[in-house]
Amino acid sequence: MWRSYIRLLFKTRLPWFWLGLLTALNIADITLGLLLPAYTAQVASGVITSTVITGVVVVIVVRVLFSGIIRYIGKITSYKIDIRYRKLIWNRLMRSPIKLYDTVKPNEMVSRTVNDTSQISAVISGLLPALVGMVYGTVYIAKVLYDYDWRLSAGLVLYSPVYVIAIIFYGKWNYRTHKYTQNRLAGLTQFLSELLVSIPLIKSFANEKKETNRGKDNIQLYYKANMKRSLTTWVNTPLTSLLNLFMELFVIIFGIYLVTQGTITLQIWIAFFMYVGMYFGMLETFGVMYTQIKQSQGATSRIAHLVENDLEQYHREQEVHNNQLDLEFDHLTFAYGDKLVLDDVSFKIPYGQVTAIVGPSGGGKSTILSLLQQLYHPNDGQILFGDTPVEKFHLDSWRGLFSYVAQDSPLFAGSIRENIVYGLEREVTESELVQAAENANILGFINEQPEKFDAPVGEGGSSLSGGQRQRVAIARAFLRNSDFLLLDEAMASLDVQSEKAVQAAMNVLMEGRTAVVVAHDLSIIRNADQIILLNEGKVETTGSHEEVLKESELYRQFVEFLNNTTEG
At 225, which helix (H) or strand (E)? Predict the structure, then answer.
């Protein structure tokens, strides 16, 4: 638990000035508070002077002012820690390898960036001032009490471990119930989010009754968890009151005995009694801190795991100077975890030609495109650019060689213009934008919009059809004007009319470029300069359409299936 916090403390530059200021103010506030028992004892014993009255008034007024200042400074400190950890996490997310996103869901990333950082910043901003203040206050009070009477102090010291142990056990119990409640809440949230987007499916299968009962079960589980949580919260007050009561009874009974024996004065006994209350207040602060740290343990471990994750290495040995070279897969093996996808594959992708990659689903076709962009790295073997392993090139420089159009190309909420120019650092002229849209066969649609290129596309491109989204992505590729083009099932799931428009745009896009195409469109495959047939992670054969058709029974079956599909 503590190790995760310590690791996080050194991952970013904390606002030490504000933490120090908050700690100093906290100590000053505690020091002022420690003056009150002595003043109160004097008043209770009949010593009422102008000095005592003035002291009490000054202490109370200054502490009231301090309480507001401390809360304000505490908020500032927490927000400063919050923003630094959020920037740290966002930077890590942008530079983390793609394999991280294969294991962590997007909503978890959002939670880590927003919720977990808030939880951590609140704990860190409160931990140091509270810890230093607690140590300072307990040591100060212990010394004062020892000076008053060592026998009462000895009883206090002997009882303190009992108090602390009880608080720790309560903290562990409280943490378990808190974690259980959070898990039940997560389960309910996940259930609701999944079911609400599937209402049409539920109704089409007449499954409302079953899902209603499942929903009630999840709600009931969360209700029971909250009831357990309420019990632990309720126990806190009587537990601390009972622990304080035992010590207070000792101080009252034994203190009165010492007063009657003349060993201590009434003034000392009153001051001692008040200091004991403050002393256990300090120990209770320790319990609160322990509980908060335990409750934030999950957030701490998640953030620590994220910020310690290996990052992509952008700066390498050399830039890409000559881009007119062949690409070569040299005895390359790759696996997603334990699942072998590519097994000792070797082939060349000639510069300036169209290479089509075909084969059964799950054979590693899209993986090849990901490996070319160095989104993943091979387990064995290498990819060569000319004679140079691609790992030697600066990552930004290398990825700048490629334009990628996916099966369902993602668009960002914004305008058509913003999505077409995405990724370009230079200024784009209006004529360039128009030419790219015309080449992508989408200029007519854009001109029909009242806002033209500034028309909004909606979240994820929801305002556009699938074909329109693909053509916006192709326009982006035209504008990027990269030497290497990667097309991953770019026409899958399109209707006939959209497919024809996208096909025409793709034919223009591939002219004069090195294109690597994963497709089930027979016209693209037949016209490719080279076909690579993958089967169960291995290269079965390579060559032109006629050559592969002659050599491979699997390819003949594949072509026959596509012909039948087209005719159907």
Answer: helix 208-260
